[in-house]
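Researcher: I'm comparing several assemblies side by side, and this is the next one on my list. It has 589 residues spread over two chains. Same procedure as the others: predict the full complex and return the structure.
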Amino acid sequence: MEASLVARTTPGRRIGSVEQYRPGQGVFVDLDDGSLRAALAGTVHIQFQDDHDSRPLVSVIRPHNLNLPHVLTVGDLVTARIIRITPRVATAEILCRGLTVLQGEQTFRATLRAQDVRATEIDKVKLFDSFRPNDIVQARVISLGDRFSYFISTAENELGVLFARCSTCSKPMVPVDWTSMRCPHQCNVEQRKVAKRPPQ
Amino acid sequence: MDPMPYSGNHRNAESRMVLPQSTNTCRPVTPSRSSTATFPRRFGEELGSVHPSKQTGHRRSGLRIHCSCGKAVLTPVPRKIRDESKPELGGESVEVVLVTMVDELPSMASVMAAMTTKVSDQYGPLVYEPRGLESEPSSAWFSGSRQDGRGDETIRPVFQRVGVIGQATGSAYHEAGRTKVFCAVYGPLPSTEVGLVGEGEAQIVCEIRFARFAKAALRGYGPQTTTTAASVEERDISGIVERALMAMVRTEMYPKSRIEVFGTVVEDHGSVLPALLTCASLAIVDAGIESVDCIAACGVMLTPPLEPEAGATSEIRRCWVDPTADELGVMDAEVVMAVLPLKGIVHLSSTGPIAPTDFSRCKILLSEGCKQLARISRNTITKSMMDHN
C-alpha cells in the first residue's frame, strides 16, 4: 500500500522521527535529534509495507523530468563496454545502470577479474576467449573497488557478452551457446562468455 | 639646501620618502579624522601633484603623486616622467608612487602634508595642489546614512532562479541589488585523479571566475592581465565555496565521484562572496545532489567611527548589512558569515580591525540576514518544483 503526500520539501526539512518512519531514498537521519530530514528537493512519499518492521518507508522523490545523479551500488546490473584485456583482468567502462544510460564524456571504469567471469572452473578461465575489446557485456557490480574503478562480475547465466563484432569482418555476431558466437557471413566461430537471453 | 640631482636610483635613502609612523610591518597609523577623506583610493589614481612654490629653474621640480593600490603601504618610489601638461614645471616632473597598507587609513590631507614636508627637503619649498577628486563621497553620505536609502539592517532585494543553464546538472542565478552571479554544477562525475578526500566520499571541485567586466575597474587585456589563470582573489573565493559545500553535501552518498561547481560573477557590486555561497548551494540542490540543508550567507560591514552625536559618549561604528561596492569604499571592516540553518556556521571570515563588542553586534545582524536569505532560497526551490509538476 502506498500513499504519497503532496508535501514538497527542501533539503533539511524535518519529515518525522526514526520511531515513526524508516528512511528511504533521499532521506537522511539527523543524528543530533533522531529526526528524519529530506536530503533532496522533491515530494515526500510514504510506503506502507507489510514487513516485520511496521514503520512505513518514507522517501523523497524528485520530479521525474529533472536530472538525478546516478550512483552505482553493489548488486546493480550494469551494461559495460570492454576496453582492455590482459591475461588476468579486463577493464570496462560502464555505459548503463539498469535501464538508465549514464551520460557524460567521462564514464566510470570497472574491472572484471578472471575469477569473476564465470561461476565454474574459475581457475581455467582464459580472458581472451571470454571477451574482446569493444564487446558490450551485461555485468553485476560486486564491489565498490578502489578509487578508480568498480569491480564487476559476469558469473551468472544471464550475464556476459550481449553484443560483439566479428574480428575479421566487423559484422555483429550471433550467439551459438554460452561459450561461442558465430559470424553469419563468414561462419567464423569465436569464443565468448555469452549472456543467456530470455527466450523470445 | 641644494636639491640633489635626481639620479634615478630610488634605492637611495634620501630620495625615498617614508610616511611617518609607517613601516613595512603595517603598524596602524593614527589618522587625523576628517569627515571627507578617510577611504582607500583606487589603484593608479592620481592624488594630486606637488610643485615648487616658485620656479627654481631646476628641471626636476615637480611631483605627481599617484596611489597604487589604495590599501597597501610600502614606500613611495619616485620615478622620473616627462610631464608635458605642466610646462611651467620645466617639462619634467618626478612621479611618486605611494602604495599604502595601514590598518587605519590616514586622511589624504595628512598624507599630503607628510609628503610635502619630506619632499620639500629635497626639492625646495613646494606647494601641494590636489587634483579634483570626483569620487570623493560627500560628507553627508559618510555621516551615517546609506547611499541607497536602506536601513542599516536591510538586505538588498534578491532575485533567484534555478535551472538557468540547461546543459548543467544543476544551476542557479542569484542577484542581490546589482551583484549578479551564476553557478553551474556538474556531477557526480567519475573521479579520475587522486584527491585529498577518501574514496568513500565525493570530492567537490569548485572554480569561481570573475567576468572581465565584473568589477568597476575593467580587467581588460593588457600586459598584466593576459594570463587566463585565476587570480589570487578568485582562488581564494573558490576555496571558501568549496569548503562550505563540503559541509553541505552528503558526500558519503557518492563514493569515488567528483562534483564540479563553476561560478561566474557577472557583476560585482559588493557582497560577492555571500552571493556565491548562496548561489552555489542552490545549484547543488537543483542538481539533485543530496545535501543536509541550503547555505544562507550574508555580509556585514563596519564603517569607521563617526563623530559622536550630541549626547553620545563615544564614537560608534555603524553596521551595514549587505554592503554595496560603493559602501565598501568607506569600509573599515567587513564580516561574512554563511550558515547551514540545520547545522550551524560553515563559514565566518572578517577583514579589518573589529572590537569584540562590534563583532557580537555583527554576528547578530548576520544571523538575521542569513535567516532572510534562507527563507528566500527555500521559496525559490519550492517554486521551481511547482513549475515542473
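Model: For your comparison table: The longest helix of chain B spans residues 356-388.
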